């Protein structure tokens, strides 16, 4: 009897690398496979690398990967490269970047590192129409050559903000082995690769250090992009140069000059710089979300984002030294920018610069929902929201593409909801749920972000993950996800139960008790911390109400899987928490809940969660929400928490109050933003998809399309955003598209539309009148 091995589609291939490759230093390795084809055929390959790769076939961009994983899942890609093959000589070129965890790391925090060194694994063969093998290129079975890069050094960007996207590049063009992607013979030291280890797991239950799994999400899209204008340069800056209508410009020897380019909107992409001649020159490529100025307070002064005459472009940068030949420079990783500054110092010979371009990239989000209205801000809000969401979706959801690119559960829960309503796509959502689930610690709490090379715990973020699981169930109707994740849900809720203290409420979480970026919530040094003062003195009302809400969410889910006793236990624990909040934190004079039993502070957050958790209902719910919106010195919700405030107003029948809350989005547009910022107080990041709330509100509330049963097995249409005169649009659901069109008639409305045939429909008018359409299809009221 033989022990079984873990088998994947890459079985039979081996990880390969250079003989002297070190695991203790960051490295960039060029791998090449040169072969001859006498006839063309179909070639599908399976490919992965440690840690990241970029693939070219005969000079054509063919793939980037692998998909970001963690210690338990290292992904591989399946690529059909047939269209790039040619008769005669072919070159497959793979650039691999390895980030060592030893010493100062250059890696993005979202890339999980290891001590295995730079390696590549490929399995693939070319077949003719009859299925006859023409060629095999599998690593470990055929010869591959590799060369260690000597041109690129990593430089840490030292910003006054937390920067987690990894180091930037300093590149000497003369050391690049030009032609390595296409030519048979290229300069440099090229060696035969040696096998390092098998791609699959070991016998007798041994776990592979790189456990392989096929990529669970689509490949990132790539689209050619171009800059739309050159920006005016300040008088106190270097002299400006311009491309004008020309494709290139030649700068004389000894020149120092700048040009600043506007992509027209914030984007993510691979910047492309072409040069000719110019040996001894230096080009700094600076990427920025906006024009800004430094301050002594630790945050930058910002105004209108495209005000180049009163502000400067500050930001991360790559540095390139042209080789003196015909160069094409592209950073290995995509960059985030709206504006790019080229600061050029020409050496002893003239430098020819070609007009820069970029290749936009991101998750291939297919937007299938849409809305129209005579209210002018609706279209602007929709467009900016979709763009912001797209920029925060790559191989994971991201808090922001410029500074961190980390998948936090607070941000991600909202981004997933917006994705559902915009496209119905659940693939990246399921990966996010799995990513965070796999971060479970021995204490029973999941980490606040995953994948992440540095652990971080924000306890309440684990509760948003529970809501995320329920959201997925409502979107898909797939009960299997709940069954699979019940143990993790139990572990999280048990962790919080162990934090119940003398007040009968949870407290003393030990880790970061972040709630929201409220400007008044600062640490002892006056630095914004997002933590209510109540957390430093005992229980926090908002956190306890979120916990109660998560207990009720879990009760609903586990009851659906047949665990009624557990559901009853969770509801009893929720009721106990709510009872203590009512007893200890209610203030009749203020008509609101204090932020803690012994803290005289009030927030919109606590009042919203009192409604959402079921503590305040009916007239009391209306009272506390009105006081939260109109009362003096009440802590205000930022963009991220507006979702929960909107949901509370919806539940309390006060959705009309949301009309004034849109002002913060209108204020952002007045600053010429093209994506929603992290918040309007600090304005650290200009792209945070938790601000893409209009996607959800326009589809769920203004068009009124909601699931009445998990998986959209029954649908309700109940437009409630009636401060609009009319609305028309389409909402994608798990059962197909829903068409809705309505306009006001006095205090009611006329409405018509269509839902998929066979899907029961309930239409609710503002008057409360209900119309049932058991077979779905077209309707007109």
CATH architecture of the domain at 14-150 and 174-217: Sandwich
Radius of gyration using CA atoms only: 28 Å
Question: Major β-sheet, in short?
Answer: 12 strands, mixed
Please count the helical segments.
Answer: 13
Q: Work out the strand percent.
A: 25-35%
Mean pLDDT: 95
The helix-and-strand class reads alpha+beta
CA(first)-CA(last) distance: 71 Å
**How many individual β-strands?**
41
What is the level 1 CATH name of the domain at 14-150 and 174-217? Mainly Beta
Q: Shape, please? A: globular
The name of the CATH superfamily of the domain at 14-150 and 174-217 reads: Galactose-binding domain-like
The residue ranges in which pLDDT falls below 50 over 5 or more consecutive positions are 1-5
CATH level-3 fold name of the domain at 14-150 and 174-217: Jelly Rolls
Share of residues in helices: 10-25%
Polypeptide structure, described:
The structure is a single chain. The strands form eight sheets. Strands 11, 12, 16, 17, 18, 19, 20, 24, 25, 26, 27 and 28 form a twelve-stranded mixed beta sheet that branches. With 781 residues, this protein is α+β, with helices and mostly antiparallel strands. It starts with 13 loop residues before the first strand and ends with a strand. It is 22% helix and 29% strand. It is built from 13 helices and 41 strands. It is globular. A hairpin with a 7-residue loop joins strand 34 and strand 35. Helix 1 packs across helix 13 (693-702) and helix 8 crosses helix 10 (639-651). Among the domains are: 14-150 and 174-217, Galactose-binding domain-like (Jelly Rolls, Sandwich); 222-362, Sandwich (Jelly Rolls), CATH 2.60.120.260.
